[in-house]
Amino acid sequence: MARPLSENNNDRLWSLQGVSFGYGTTPVLRKVSLELRRGCCYGILGPNGSGKTTLLDLLSGLLLPQAGTIAFLGRPLQSWSKKHLAQQLALVPQDFMVRFGFSVREVVEMGLHPHLHRFAAPSAADQALVDAALAITGITTLADRPVTRLSGGEKQRVAVARALAQQPLVLLLDEATSNLDIHHSLEILQLIRQRFEQQGMQVIAVMHDLNLASFFCDELIFLKQGEVVCQGKTEDVLTSATIASVYGVEAEVTPNTFTNCRQVSFRLPVHP
Question: Is the pTM of this model over 0.90?
Answer without folding.
Answer: no
